[in-house]
Amino acid sequence: MARVYDAxxxxxxxxxxxxxxxxxxxxxxxxxxxxxxxNWKEILEGEWMLEFYAxxxxxxxxxxxxxxxxxxxxxxxxxxxxxAAVDVTNSPGLSGRFVVTALxxxxxxxxxxxxxxxxxxxxxxxxxxxxxxxxxxxxxxPGWKAPDSLQMSLVAExxxxxxxxxxxxxxxxxxxxxxxxGSYLIFAIATIFVGALVGLxxxxxxxxxHPPQKVDKKFISRSELEKLARGDNDGKxxxxxxxxxxxxxxxxxxxxxxxxxxxxxxxDTSEDxxxxxxxxxxxxxxxxxxxSDKPEARKRRPRKAD
Length: 306
Hints:
The protein is of the alpha/beta class. Among the domains are: 33-144, Glutaredoxin, CATH 3.40.30; 152-209, no CATH class. It has helices at residues 2-30, 58-76, 92-97, 123-131, 150-174, 180-209, 222-230, 239-255, 260-263, 266-280, 289-293; strands at residues 32-35, 47-53, 81-87, 105-110, 113-117.
């Protein structure tokens, strides 16, 4: 018995490294991996099926047995497929990075290309989707929306911040006993203060990068200002300006109905004399109303060109 025991022990010791290597390989190929903010970039290499779930989600709990079986069946079929899962309650940044709006959400990842799986959620359908490469019929997520892009990294940070603010809100209500409106009031005041501080910082940065240009002021004496107001440095108007003013005065005087020029105009006196002569001669033809009523057009004196 001792010899049999020694022989079995030697065989076990000799085969132990191979067993460990085999188990580690199978585990690497088929085991479900839990992803978080630190290790999610592992799925950028190789082929993966990724699930987003939450412990309180009934549909996620119903999918859990099929999801575990998927990794086992993939290993039996010698598929280089690995499965991973993300708990959105523990990793809210990843849910924002992948824009997860419903649970459970499944993605197929192949060498850094992301495609959302929208087929049936049973093992056979998901294996067929991978084996027959039906994922090629699905358009990948565009580059601007890719989870590893810069803009989606910013979205992930906003999701993290929202989760942190939610934790502060719960702490204020549970630990300090504040009502919900008191917590909201504190957040409102903090938002106004932070907004004012950020605005002040932006104004200072803009003034530093693009300082306002200084306008050179020209100082003149009061006497020079009065001369400029009168239109000439000598305090006298130019001949052209004076002639224009005189013409305007003359035109106004001629156009006024009560002016002496209108009363003593030669056209009016000639018309009165013609009417008297026609009445004395007994002329029966009445004077043309249009010609008598229509005032004579006057020509304006041409002004000197500027």
